[in-house]
Amino acid sequence: MKKYNILSVLFILALLVFSCEKEEELNISDVNHRIIVTSEMDFQNKVIVGGHIDFGDISRGVKTRTWTFPENSRISGEKGNTSSKEVIKGFFNKAGVYDVKLSQTFKGNVFRNDDSTVPSDSKQLDTTIVVTVIDSIKSVLKAYHINTDGSIGAELDLSNGAENEIEASNSIRLTYTAIGEPEAITWSSEGGKPATINSGAEEEVDMRFNRLGSWDLEFIASRFRPTDADTLSFEKVIKVIPSSAPVTLDRVAEREDKVALEFSREIDGSTVNPADFTVRIENNRDAMNPILINPVISAATIDKNEANIVILDLSGEQLYNDDQVYVSYTPGKLTTVDEVESEAFTDVLLTDFDQLANLYPSTSYDYGLETSTTDNWAYLGWGGHWGEYDLDIGVVNTRTGTKSLDINFRPNGGMIVEHRDAGGNPVVITLEEGKRYEFGYWIYVESDLSGVPSGTESSDIRIYPSNWAFELIPTVFTPDLPTGEWVYQKQEFDAGFTGEVSWFVRGYNEFNPQAIKFYIDDMFLAEVPVRP
Fold first, then answer.
1. How far apart (Å, rounded) are the C-alpha atoms in residues 164 and 158?
2. Neighbour-count burial of 405, counting CB atoms closer than 10 A to its CB (0-12 exposed, 13-18 middle, 19+ buried)
3. 414, 393, 413, 396: which is closest to 505 by C-alpha?
4. Tens of pLDDT along 246-296?
5. Residue 33: CA atoms inside 13 Å, Cβ hemisphere, count?
6. By C-alpha distance, which of 409, 430, 435 is closest to 365?
7. E strand or H helix at 80, and its extent?
């Protein structure tokens, strides 16, 4: 008996074809051809316990058929576990992997598959459709104190109103176990930092608490297909109390041309004085004419939403992404709400500029992989190892949305593709001379990279504009590249021309005897502000 790879045809269209079949048989003479579809075939025939899948036999030339269902399942409208109908609805009552079998007898020799070039030498064909039945998501949560030395401490009581005491600026370890194969986990607490943590299917995360008060905690485990979610909420389980530990400056970031100082816990707004801070801006883009700016700090205020952040207003001085911005504090009265004074700090570098705006949404480039198909990512025909790859628009592993690029570099293989529209024309974007851009995407590597080659034989992903004006290498597959998680890969470049180009995406695996399987989602292209 053969495990049959079900055709990628929309089930509803298949049923429309079937509804016309008897009329068509009166008018045309057609070959015997096996075609079987299911309502979940684009989603690996997965279904939740108690759910159903529709099965359709729209093969041509069928004389007799028998569907046979396994234990813990039933066929709607049938007393037993078999049916001879063309279209049936099957229900599944217990988690597991099941074989649904179809035995067909045709009027003559039959083409087995859609791509068969010759018919089989038999009128009898047997098919097995593998169905995976998944439990509803059910979760069990635990939380633990994190000691000052980083070790895990006592378990927290997750009863409503438990108010487990945590000193300000300390963290807790959040863990869960679940059945039902959740794909996305979200932890949230208004008092947490960050307030929301989206962790994929990661089983543990740490959440820090800077703000005094009592806080709720919420957990959501969800799955895209078959759709399901488990939500657990706990009221006032965390109580943040004053701490005597030193207050620390944890991050310096841009905030709309202002400087945001993120401290380890809440700051008393009445103790903030702009005269206690200095900011220095350096820019060495032109080595012969370096720039030094000492902006006047006209105001220093507490962020209205996060009281552990102090905002420095630079009197309208604009910040650029190629600047080096340094902040210093001379001790004045800067004090936390739990009455701990800040120590001095000198020349702390601003590390995070404002988020850049993605240019792709204003173009027809399918940067989120939600609207294109495999046919839209065309092979450029270089031949040799450049065609040794597999590419699909898949739903198995996505960062956002419902689809991603599912790519496999075959052993000693490679890839060269271009994004094209339905008419086969390259999808273009416009670059402007004199501007700097950030090119990026999120990648999830599934393969083990411990044995990948290095140096000039490294496996990588390279990007070229269609005019070959430059080369980008956002990803080199090395043993230290994270696997099993989504990571952002980027590279900046200066456009030396103005015009429309398409992207050539080139994958290289020629010297690696192992395949590399990965996913790409949420492509990014943005203009990077640089000082004129």
1. 8
2. buried
3. 414
4. 999 999 999 999 999 999 999 999 999 999 999 999 999 888 889 999 999
5. 14
6. 430
7. none
